[in-house]
Amino acid sequence: MNLLRAIPAINRLIHDKRIQETINRYHIPMMTVKDVFRRVTDEMRDVILRDEAPSNWTVDTMFDETIQRGLHELVDEQRQRLQPVINGTGTVIHTNLGRSKLAHSAVERVRMVTDSYSTLEYDLTYGARGSRHDLVEERIKALTGAEAAIVVNNNAAAVYMVLSAFAKGYEVIVSRGELIEIGGSFRVSRIMEESGAKLREVGTTNKTHASDYESAIQDDTAMIMKVHTSNFTMQGFTASVDRETVSQLAKTQSVISYEDLGSGSLIDLSQYGISQEPSVNQVIHSGVDIVSFSVDKLLGGPQAGIIAGKKKYIDQLKRHQLARVLRVDKMTYAALDETLRLMQTDEWHQIPTLHTIFKDEFTIEEAVNTVITKLPHLIDLSVAIEKTNSQVGGGTLPDVTLPSYSLAVQSHSLSSERLAERLRKNTPAIIARVENDTVWLDFRTIDDHEHAMIIDVLADIDQSINFTS
Q1: pLDDT tens per residue across span 436-449
Q2: What residues bear N6-(pyridoxal phosphate)lysine in this entry (predicted)?
């Protein structure tokens, strides 16, 4: 009970010199400071009441202990919530870490259009109002072979818009084997329900035939929808109907054929031995009326969704009320336009996502070995190079692994979870994988300019461990 009485009053804490310096440095409101110390003292009180107080908590140390805990939380609260990190997970398109990184030239384009007024909806030729829909449409048409295209804020929005515009109150036929769920519990069936379209399931989980689609078409059928299962694979006793057959059937029955392609590659990955993932161009040339796909996955651009296809359908979408609700801003258009330009001029290796996917494993091995040789003598930490596998991620190419090399790090004093936490709390944060009581830093997703930071942080952690032990 003496420890409880030793918990200092909040008014005494906030007048401590260390707290006042922190308040002045970060311009922290007094209300925030008081809230932090109320939380800290309440947590310490609970620990004491549970009889779980650390041995170094004494009547004499309680004031400094409370100050240190308060300082840590105050500084932590001032950290920007959205901040850059070093991705050592080996997952190229990491949804939790912001998916695709933009090309340097795309970042510069964003800076240019946000640093001044722009031609977002202004036609320089006629000196009159223009349409943002025209900004990147020609590039998309050239790259995909589509007659027209529209950009919305992500692919989920694209799916919702297509279904709402063309199938509200009508049936949409989907194979049971394609009723997928992706990250965040996003289900095709639920988005269809929200759009007002009626789901008509055909086939079985593992087998769907052309006759299943044909027999399901009725007077209130508006669309046949294929959903590309880019986030999982099904093997064994399976059968599905190719998009050429589906599009031809839809045409003969006067209904719309639509494919949600998801990851949306604009290059044929099979020619590089990566995957049989269809390109948008291949889907368009199969005869499908409408295709939608993400921009921030295999295209390597900003968050957005593209709907491409027959002009008569895209024109309807441009006039739809949802076009304004789901439209993207000038920064997205600037980044997307530059990303598409790089694709169009065959400079796609400058797009970080694609560059990282195609990174040579021997280049990665050399990078890890170079970092190891540049590390100072480590006492507590031990490091080694290990062959490993990376993945594309982002719900794309689930059956594709990318050979890579990792820096495997272990500590004699810290658990692997605690070591990963130390890396994560660095600035910038270093995000690693933890497996088999080892911290893995996969160098496929670590850029050359980040190597020096890795070296410095590991050296600092090793030094701090030795200093406190």
Answers
A1: 999 999 999 999 99
A2: 297
Phi, psi (deg, nearest 5) at residue 129: -60, 135
Do the Cβ atoms of 191 and 244 come closer than 8 Å? no
Sorting pLDDT into bands at 50, 70 and 90, what band is 183?
A: low
Q: Please, what is the angle between helix 188-195 and helix 155-167, to 10°? A: 50
Please write the tens of the pLDDT for every residue from 142-152: 999 999 999 99
The CATH architecture of the domain made up of 85-96+357-468 is: Alpha-Beta Complex (3.90)
> What is the SS3 assignment for 265?
strand
Residue 182 is predicted with a pLDDT of 62
Query: What CATH architecture is 102-350?
Result: 3-Layer(aba) Sandwich (3.40)
Is 458's pLDDT higher than 90? yes
DSSP-derived secondary structure letter, 279: B
Lowest mean pLDDT among 67-81, 182-196, 238-252, 304-318: 182-196
- The pTM (predicted TM-score) of the whole model is 0.85
* 54 DSSP 8-state letter: -
Per DSSP, the three-state class of 89 is coil
Q: Which residue is listed with tokens 């990955």? A: 269
The DSSP result for 26-51, as a single string, is HT--HHHHHHHHHHHHHHHHHHHHTT
Domain spans of the chain, in order of start: 2-78, 85-96+357-468, 102-350
Which DSSP category does 273 fall into?
T
Task: Check: CB of residue 299 under 8 Å from CB of residue 341.
Answer: no
**364-368 long-range CB contacts below 8 Å, 24 or more apart?**
364/404, 364/405, 364/443, 364/444, 365/405, 367/405, 367/443, 367/446, 367/448, 367/451, 368/405, 368/406, 368/407, 368/443
